[in-house]
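ok new one. same drill as before - structure tokens go in, u give me an amino acid for every spot. 192 of them this time. try not to just spam alanines like last time pls lmao
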């Protein structure tokens, strides 16, 4: 187990994280953990309380509705966190060190998204597709200075305000499937 780098427990009908006693499996070398396509419904702060060498954590396509405060705090090396495809409705304040965040398909509204504090000012990607958002989640992206890809498609966003221009520099922006009727003057000036 000391040389274990990747742990994949995809689609194994996992409903209760505590039943696995995963702390036994985590060596100092582990970098990838995939717990996708299971039946997990909650993420507790104690779940990922081990060392911070994990680069990739995939919790997509579970039944996660709630994430406890600071559940990902100990994962200082995290590059990619995938929470997409979960019916997330409530998230307690989170500080997340990652440069790629996938939340597509969750039910988090703008006020819930505002509880996530991203520590990276430059990100590779953020996916907020199909959230039912009525507005751009400015509170979430305010801390980001630069991002390669921002997907806020398939929401109910009606306008992009000038605040967007002051907020972020973007390489690629997806707004498809929204209800856009107004884009503020200079709102998209920071597209690169």
């Amino acid at each position: 187990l000391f040389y274990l780098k990747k742990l994949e427990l995809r689609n194994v009908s996992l409903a209760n994280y505590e039943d696995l006693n995963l702390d036994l499996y985590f060596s100092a070398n582990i970098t990838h953990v995939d717990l996708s396509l299971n039946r997990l419904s909650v993420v507790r702060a104690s779940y990922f309380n081990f060392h911070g060498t994990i680069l990739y954590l995939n919790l997509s396509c579970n039944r996660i509705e709630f994430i406890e405060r600071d559940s990902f705090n100990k994962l200082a090396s995290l590059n990619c966190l995938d929470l997409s495809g979960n019916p997330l409705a409530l998230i307690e304040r989170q500080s997340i060190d990652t440069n790629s965040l996938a939340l597509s398909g969750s039910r988090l509204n703008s006020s819930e998204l505002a509880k996530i504090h991203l520590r990276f000012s430059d990100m590779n990607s953020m996916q907020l597709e199909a959230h039912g958002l009525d507005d751009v989640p400015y509170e979430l992206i305010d801390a980001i200075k630069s991002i390669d890809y921002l997907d806020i498609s398939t929401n109910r966003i009606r306008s992009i305000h000038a605040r967007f221009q002051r907020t972020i520099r973007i390489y690629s922006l997806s707004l498809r499937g929204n209800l856009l009727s107004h884009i503020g003057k200079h709102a998209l000036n920071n597209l690169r």
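The chain has three helices and 15 strands. and btw The mean pLDDT is 83.
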